[in-house]
């Protein structure tokens, strides 16, 4: 028996696709908002979708531009729930500084407010779950300049002031986009008093197999690059915040947040408790789990990735949602195993 109809945006992204599959497995009917017919075919051709054979439990609606006013008006009709995962992403160096507002911040805010406005017109909507980020809660100086001081812990109550440019890099602008979208969401709920609940999910770096990556050369697209980079021999001297979460856990959180027994609110996704992870440990994890691939040079396993310590408290998520986050070791193993599979190598 169906648990209701869920509209999912961003279903061809790393988090979005895994969430789509998780929602189907949980018994929901899914309507996926995609930007083109080719994106629809990308989802349908995925092995896990073929295995589920969802038939009419999975339908699609084309929304080519999430910034257009009323972009989601038709898509939300009849939906009981909305998982709004679509948001602009940043690929280092591809966006010029003068375009940060137009390509990152404005679309993040407009896409979120558009889905909220559309839901206001649809009485069937009961709850909306929005993918935010832990970067919407961490001051930029602790992301890019220095470790967090003793006693400073990011939790579900942490908030930042409204961002303003200029931004030193595209990653600073990305962080600003997440902050602006979160603040816009909370202002909407406060000022408009909608008939539906709104929950925000705040992942740290999302690590784990991305089934829609079909070529080994694309394994480093997105946040998986941080975890597998040292294993593939990439050498970086730029510290990156040591906070990560398995993609399966984030997908579970999105779907679990639809359950009325889970109070609406903010939930952080982050493994390994306050200690966080050490990115360089990916090489020792690879050596332990894939010794043959390391010995043969398939995995060079000689890269470097410094870690910037950030203390993140996600205990509320585990307590309320009733699960334990998968470890950094499980995250790395998932990505490396997928890489070896794509290379046609034995992952044992």
UniProtKB/TrEMBL annotation:
Domain spans labelled NAD-dependent epimerase/dehydratase: 6-259
Entry GO MF terms: oxidoreductase activity, acting on the CH-OH group of donors, NAD or NADP as acceptor
Signal peptide: none
Family matches, as Pfam families: Epimerase (PF01370)
UniProt keyword terms in alphabetical order: Oxidoreductase
Family statement: Belongs to the NAD(P)-dependent epimerase/dehydratase family. Dihydroflavonol-4-reductase subfamily.
Protein name: Oxidoreductase
Source species: Penicillium atrosanguineum
